[in-house]
Amino acid sequence: MLIRSQDKDFLPPPASEITPRAVWQQRRQLLRLAAIAGGASLAPWASQAAERPGKLAALPGARSSLPGATTPEPLTPYADVTGYNNFYEFGTDKADPARQAHRLKTRPWSVQVDGLVGKPRSFAIEDLLKLAGMEERIYRLRCVEGWSMVIPWVGYPLAELLKQVQPLGSAKYVEFVSQADPSTMPELRAGVLDWPYTEGLRLDEAMHPLTLLAFGLYGEVLPNQNGAPLRLVVPWKYGFKSAKSLVRIRLVEQMPRTSWNLAAPREYGFYSNVNPEVAHPRWSQANERRLGEPGGLFAKRRPTQPFNGYAAQVAQLYTGMDLHRFY
Ligand SMILES: Nc1nc2c(c(=O)[nH]1)N[C@H]1C(S)=C(S)[C@@H](COP(=O)(O)O)O[C@H]1N2
Ligand SMILES: [Mo]
């Protein structure tokens, strides 16, 4: 068994993250809140449709009509979504991915989908982009470290891809594998985690309509630091379940080992559902800090919701399970 000290990882962010940027972000955020308050005749989210920042190629998505797929909360500013990241392959500091991920080569790109399926195959990114209709979904993303964001993703349900390969009856879990290229990813030599970054879901979780295969955010293709050219987004689980820059999706019978579970099994279980009642061994999960909010670090923390607020959609997946034991 591999044992490593993770004490320097996943600690609450230091006070040094207050930057002058917070000042103009606050002003923008207040304007946005005022706009939402003023747009009484509109659906609550209509006035906060993701405005393109105009930095990357457009990737439009039709607003999803799936219940729960669009939170009315104000969007986290693009600068925070793309400047405060966990993508350990590019470094463990929150600013490292934005600085380093330009080195990631996103073309050519393909994803191998295999294992216990009737039709294993490799999908070129060009084909994946056309496989199903792109939707915009505004999800909360809750990091296990205690911060959260509200992000307008563009993508389609992972189920659309899984259906293509025809899962066999013996498939019970899905393993997700991220790109691991030592020539572009500086942290691969440091050994913070076992690479490639690997995650997993139970097959019914993977097939749930809220489980998104994301190709973009804010109406444009994904910035590299957010997991280009495609990544998973599982909104009711801690952020680390949403693996970035996927190259392989494998259907398997046994529960797959995952990078964080291997690194610190007592701290990171397989399920990792957002749960304010189950503390991390080193800190509470009862509340969270919303990035980009007025007040910055001094803004009031908000209570974390069971399943990150998606209980109505997903709680039935866990009926009869002891969620303290299966954390
Ligand atoms: N390959 C890979 N995927 C990853 C990570 C990572 O380090 N490597 N970090 C995870 C964590 S801890 C979080 S909170 C989210 C962050 O996604 P974001 O940067 O788009 O907000 O990505 C997850 N996916
Ligand atoms: Mo995270």
UniProtKB/TrEMBL annotation:
Catalytic reaction annotation: L-methionyl-[protein] + a quinone + H2O = L-methionyl-(S)-S-oxide-[protein] + a quinol; L-methionyl-[protein] + a quinone + H2O = L-methionyl-(R)-S-oxide-[protein] + a quinol
The protein's required cofactors: Mo-molybdopterin
Record's cofactor remark: Binds 1 Mo-molybdopterin (Mo-MPT) cofactor per subunit.
InterPro entries xref list: MsrP (IPR022867), OxRdtase_Mopterin-bd_dom (IPR000572), OxRdtase_Mopterin-bd_sf (IPR036374)
Binding site for Mo-molybdopterin: 85, 88-89, 143, 178, 226, 231, 242-244
GO biological process, one term: protein repair
GO molecular function: metal ion binding; molybdopterin cofactor binding; oxidoreductase activity, acting on a sulfur group of donors, quinone or similar compound as acceptor
Keywords: Metal-binding, Molybdenum, Oxidoreductase, Signal
Tree of life domain: Bacteria
EC number(s) from the headed UniProt entry: 1.8.5.-
Family statement: Belongs to the MsrP family.
Role, per record: Part of the MsrPQ system that repairs oxidized periplasmic proteins containing methionine sulfoxide residues (Met-O), using respiratory chain electrons. Thus protects these proteins from oxidative-stress damage caused by reactive species of oxygen and chlorine generated by the host defense mechanisms. MsrPQ is essential for the maintenance of envelope integrity under bleach stress, rescuing a wide series of structurally unrelated periplasmic proteins from methionine oxidation.
The protein's name in its UniProt record: Protein-methionine-sulfoxide reductase catalytic subunit MsrP
Annotated organism of origin: Malikia granosa
Record lineage: Bacteria, Pseudomonadati, Pseudomonadota, Betaproteobacteria, Burkholderiales
